[in-house]
Design a protein that fits this description.
The chain has 225 residues and is of the alpha+beta class. The protein has a single domain, classed as 2-Layer Sandwich (BirA Bifunctional Protein, domain 2), CATH 3.30.930. A 4-stranded antiparallel beta sheet has the order 1-2-3-4, covered by helices on one side. β2 and β3 form a beta hairpin. α3 crosses α9, α5 packs across α6 and α5 packs across α9. The longest helix has 26 residues. The protein is globular, with a radius of gyration of 19 Å.
Length: 225
């Protein structure tokens, strides 16, 4: 199934040169038809397919999709709207962005498919480091998985210069324990947005990331989900 037409990307390219409420309201019917409605259908299909494999994913597209409006209160850039559609698909959606899940961004520049823990709390970071130190071989096996490395490459994130005392020995075995974030992702050409079976492509990436997401989820939740 093809979800998007060429006007999905074209709308955002036009919005880039007219990023104000007047232009957006004048073109809102076009936005609804070319961007909002197909994106909701697409995210709904991805959720449907994921829920067949993991019943914890009982969530609606609206609970996953981020608003197009930008929060400009603390930004020098006062543009009213984002130039992409995005969503985070996890058991709690955008309500709890610390929970490992599938982040999707579709824009005229690229498709972003990402996972992991981008902004864990202090407690969650402690829990992740504890889980890694308890079984560094299991963690390393996940990130060295051939399919994972081929799709996503390496784990990314800011790194602590000073390692907490209780993790210094574990750090010698697994250097990634110094990370303050544990995320990963891939960008694909924007032409793929209009391809058939985009949902299948995304689902294949979700299957690859899920073992590591499960490891991180189990680390930051007492009894899983």
């Amino acid at each position: 199934m093809t979800y998007f037409t060429e006007d999905f990307s074209q709308f955002f390219m036009d919005l880039a040169g007219n990023n104000n409420t007047e232009w957006f309201h004048a073109n809102k019917p076009r936005y609804e038809k070319s961007v909002k409605e197909p994106f909701e259908i697409f995210i709904g299909k991805v959720i449907e397919e994921i829920s067949k494999l993991d019943p914890e994913y009982q969530i609606t597209p609206k609970e996953c999709i981020f608003r197009l409006h930008r929060d400009v209160r603390f930004s020098k850039d006062k543009s009213s709207y984002k130039l992409f559609s995005s969503a985070v698909i996890s058991p709690k959606g955008r309500k709890d962005k610390s929970l490992p899940g599938l982040y999707l961004r579709l824009s005229p520049e690229d498709i972003g498919i990402m996972g992991g823990c981008y902004n864990p709390s202090t407690l969650q970071l402690q829990q992740i480091r504890t889980a890694i130190s308890a079984d560094p071989k299991a963690f390393r096996a996940l990130i060295e998985n051939e399919d994972f490395k081929e799709r996503f490459g390496e784990i990314k994130g800011d790194v602590n210069k000073r390692i907490p005392k209780e993790f210094q020995e574990a750090f010698k075995v697994e250097p990634l324990i110094a990370n303050k974030q544990f995320y990963y992702g891939i960008t694909l050409p924007p032409e793929i947005i209009t391809h058939k079976n985009l949902d299948t492509l995304v689902l294949d990436h979700w299957k690859t990331m899920q073992p590591l997401n499960d490891f991180l989820t189990e680390a930051i939740t007492e009894d899983g989900l």
